[in-house]
Design a protein that fits this description.
By secondary structure, the protein is an alpha+beta fold. It has helices spanning about 10-15, 50-55, 120-125, 130, 160-170; strands at about 15-20, 35-40, 45, 60-65, 65-70, 70, 90, 95-100, 105-110, 115-120, 140-145. The protein has 5 helices and 11 strands, in the order H-E-E-E-H-E-E-E-E-E-E-E-H-H-E-H. The chain starts with 11 loop residues before the first helix and ends in a 6-residue tail after the last helix. This is Protein Abitram.
Length: about 180
């Protein structure tokens, strides 16, 4: 039993990270992402609980960090204490593409501006981590926002309460089934 299962004891994620959300990325209903922001500014990009991959119990065929012919997130190299050399990402920079066994392809975006510190190579060989532990071992990438932007990167993102409201509205609406 891990810490999250003990009543009243917050998980490591809940204790040290603030959850932010970006919903309906690029106008695609329910393609929601979660950004876990640590107090040290580092942000971990994960799938939100409402993402179709998690909601529809999809099986993953493959995960690809090759964004274009000349750009692979796997080639990202950072060095030193100040993490020099990482690829700089804008809010809508693609991080990877996930293809499910039913042929659906989902692009996962960075959601925030910053320097790519790492991508999770473990999910390439163990894609079920994405399904079983999306907030921990199944994360997509780690991004470090610029120091001067670290307070403003959450503008345009939803708080946990706002996100839950969006999910509830969707559930009550026949227009956008997820």
């Amino acid at each position: 039993m891990d810490g999250a299962e003990h009543k009243g004891v917050p998980s490591v994620i809940d204790r040290y990270f603030t959850r932010w959300y970006k919903t309906d990325l690029k106008g695609k209903p329910c393609e929601d992402h979660c950004i876990l922001q640590h107090s040290n500014r580092i942000c971990v990009i994960t799938l939100a609980e409402s993402h179709p991959i998690l909601q529809e119990d999809k099986k993953i065929q493959r995960i690809n960090y090759q964004i274009s012919a000349g750009c692979s997130r796997l080639q990202n190299k950072v060095s030193g204490k100040s993490k020099r050399g990482g690829q700089f990402l804008t809010e809508l920079a693609p991080l990877c593409r996930i293809t499910s066994t039913d042929g659906e392809e989902y692009t996962i975006f960075s959601c925030i501006r910053g320097r790519l510190l790492e991508v999770n190579e473990d999910i390439l060989s163990r894609p079920n981590l994405l399904l079983e532990k999306p907030s921990t071992e199944g994360y997509i990438a780690v991004i470090l926002p610029k120091f001067e932007e670290s307070k403003s990167i959450t503008e345009g993102l939803l708080t946990r309460a706002e996100y839950e409201e969006v999910v509830l509205k969707r559930a009550g609406s026949n227009l956008q089934p997820c």
